[in-house]
């Protein structure tokens, strides 16, 4: 098909608006995650079921739109120059995310997050833009369904975890494996191929944003990659210094210590009330003797161990007075 004919199809403003809504939702999620991580809000956004469902919904929307975009961009014939230009931008963005999280969160850096998945699944899904629709749909169902029936501890390792068949995922702030998310991209391919060239597409193309809000969302959708890359560094540039100034990081460290101590103490058969007293005493001792580093790293010198033992005896005697009989 000639290039001039390829240019006839209008840009679908609705798709840009959908991308804009998705990127706004992701900014809201990341803002909430940051506030949770630095203990500005009490909820654990990374594990709370409602927030997890919200994050999965956003991811689902993004991955469907990847498939939709492949059909819109190349369904009438491959535009290789355009494809590789955008693909390299996504790969570069993914590399920046990995580098940035390596500095900010070295213990849970993002090595295969949203952008990494978009880059790889765009390549893997591209042939399905041209295969029979039934085959694309079948592939989507298989890719989505396979992780529900197969898992292996081998994929718990970072080296293989990006594939998606893990039993327990490795620690990372974002992991978007090929299975099942390639299948979600293929759903987007199927949906757009079914609409492409129909009356439905003409009606969608006729919808044009009139309000400032809709036009703003459309603009954000067209620049979604740039917004994705810059929003988290900007948020952290505000939240991290604010956290240090307000002492929320110290409060977070105290809370983690108390929660861990409380669980260990109660597992030993001591009542919750006595454990609370014991752990508060332990926290005061760790602060007094400046033992945070050995406590959290496990690198305990003989002098540190002596302080920890003395603190333990003091706190044990506090909840069991008979230990003071000596």
Automatic annotation (TrEMBL):
The keyword Transmembrane helix applies. Residues 11-233 form the Heparan-alpha-glucosaminide N-acetyltransferase catalytic domain. It holds the Pfam family HGSNAT_cat. InterPro entries: HGSNAT_cat. The chain crosses the membrane at residues 12-31, 51-75, 87-105, 111-130, 137-155, 175-195, 225-246. Keywords: Membrane, Transmembrane, Transmembrane helix. It comes from the Bacteria. This is DUF1624 domain-containing protein. It comes from Devosia ureilytica.
């Amino acid at each position: 098909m000639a290039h001039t004919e390829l240019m006839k199809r209008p840009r679908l403003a609705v798709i840009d608006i959908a991308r804009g809504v998705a990127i706004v939702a992701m900014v809201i999620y990341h803002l909430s995650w940051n506030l949770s991580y630095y203990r500005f809000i009490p909820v654990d956004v990374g594990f709370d079921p409602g927030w997890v469902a919200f994050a999965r919904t956003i991811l689902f929307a993004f991955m469907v739109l990847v498939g939709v975009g492949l059909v819109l961009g190349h369904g009438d014939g491959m535009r290789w120059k355009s494809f590789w230009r955008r693909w390299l931008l996504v790969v570069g963005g993914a590399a920046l995310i990995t580098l940035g999280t390596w500095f900010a969160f070295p213990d849970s850096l993002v090595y295969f997050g949203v952008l990494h998945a978009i880059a790889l699944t765009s390549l893997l899904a591209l042939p399905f833009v041209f295969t029979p629709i039934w085959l694309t749909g079948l592939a989507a169902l298989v890719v989505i369904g396979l992780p529900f029936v197969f898992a292996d501890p081998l994929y718990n390792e970072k080296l293989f975890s990006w594939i998606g068949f893990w039993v327990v995922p490795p620690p990372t702030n974002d992991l978007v494996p090929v299975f099942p998310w390639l299948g979600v991209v293929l759903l987007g391919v199927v949906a757009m191929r079914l609409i492409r060239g129909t009356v439905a597409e003409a009606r969608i193309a006729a919808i044009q944003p009139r309000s400032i809000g809709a036009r703003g969302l459309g603009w954000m959708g067209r620049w979604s990659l740039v917004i994705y890359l810059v929003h988290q560094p900007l948020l952290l540039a505000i939240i991290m210094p604010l956290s240090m100034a307000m002492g929320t990081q110290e409060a977070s460290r105290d809370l983690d210590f108390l929660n861990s101590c409380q669980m260990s103490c109660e597992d030993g058969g001591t009542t919750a009330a006595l454990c609370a007293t014991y752990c508060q005493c332990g926290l005061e001792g760790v602060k007094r003797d400046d033992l945070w580093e050995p406590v959290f790293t496990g690198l305990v010198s003989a002098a540190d161990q002596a302080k920890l033992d003395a603190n333990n005896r003091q706190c044990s005697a506090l909840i069991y007075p008979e230990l003071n009989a000596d």
